[in-house]
Write a sequence for this structure.
């Protein structure tokens, strides 16, 4: 009886362990540092966007503001005034699709194959993918001209054929997020485990490797689209109408409309970034469940 009465007394006098902070790994910044970086980055992005919005709302030299320029897009657009701009947007979307397909169909399988089967070729593949970022765009265009003449002879001088040239430029930007994701995932171990359980290579690729590479693939696609929407040099020198070349043409006659479409492009990029972030978070929440 005495032992049973002493147990709650010992439990009551036992000191409560101090709360331990979550461990910080490597050089991960603290929450305060992340907040400061986020605020500074937001200010750097917001100042030019707000300036563009203010400029697009101006009504000439009167100092008044209104939505007349936004309304003029639809009225003048129906009259065909900005057809070159809308055609440039359509061409840029087609180039985006071709470039993203090059990344998903050519670059991604090559990187997975090298990681799983030929790891000794990893350095060579990285060197090849990084080369375009070290060469100025104007020099690449000079090299693209004879190749593009052959492409134009096969497919015709269509704007979407620029995707083959832009696909080379986006290689460094698309390679890095996928490579980082591959380095963070034990692809070889996972694939060998799946193979040992009887899965075929297609099952390993579709159900094991690709779900784990989803954040890197989404980031590569987003960066690819951003690079294509901002590319001007190649389209200008190869005399193709894209979003950027159309903006340059329109700004000579109506700078307000050019700024409005630039703001729309930035908003589209932000929405796309949020959607890709949500898709990546959805994949992580499913894996934790």
């Amino acid at each position: 009886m005495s032992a049973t009465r002493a147990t709650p007394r010992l439990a009551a006098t036992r000191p409560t362990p101090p709360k331990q902070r979550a461990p910080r790994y490597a050089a991960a910044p603290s929450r305060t540092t992340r907040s400061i970086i986020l605020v500074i980055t937001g200010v750097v992005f917001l100042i030019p966007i707000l300036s563009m919005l203010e400029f697009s709302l101006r009504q000439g030299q009167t100092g008044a503001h209104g939505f007349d320029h936004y309304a003029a897009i639809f009225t003048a657009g129906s009259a065909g005034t900005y057809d070159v701009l809308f055609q440039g947007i359509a061409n840029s979307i087609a180039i985006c699709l071709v470039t993203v397909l090059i990344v998903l169909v050519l670059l991604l399988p090559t990187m997975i194959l090298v990681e799983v089967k030929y790891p000794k070729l990893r350095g060579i593949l990285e060197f090849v993918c990084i080369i375009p970022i070290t060469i100025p765009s104007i020099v690449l265009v000079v090299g693209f001209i004879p190749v593009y003449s052959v492409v134009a002879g096969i497919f015709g001088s269509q704007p979407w054929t620029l995707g083959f040239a832009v696909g080379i430029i986006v290689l460094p930007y698309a390679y890095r997020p996928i490579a980082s994701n591959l380095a963070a995932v034990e692809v070889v171990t996972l694939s060998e485990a799946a193979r040992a359980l009887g899965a075929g290579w297609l099952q390993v690729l579709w159900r094991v490797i690709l779900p784990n590479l989803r954040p890197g693939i989404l980031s590569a696609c987003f960066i690819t689209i951003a690079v294509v929407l901002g590319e001007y040099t190649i389209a200008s020198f190869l005399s193709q109408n894209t979003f950027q070349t159309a903006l340059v043409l329109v700004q000579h006659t109506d700078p307000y409309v050019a700024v409005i479409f630039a703001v729309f492009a930035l908003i589209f990029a932000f929405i796309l970034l949020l959607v890709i972030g949500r898709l990546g978070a959805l994949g992580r929440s499913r894996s934790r469940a």
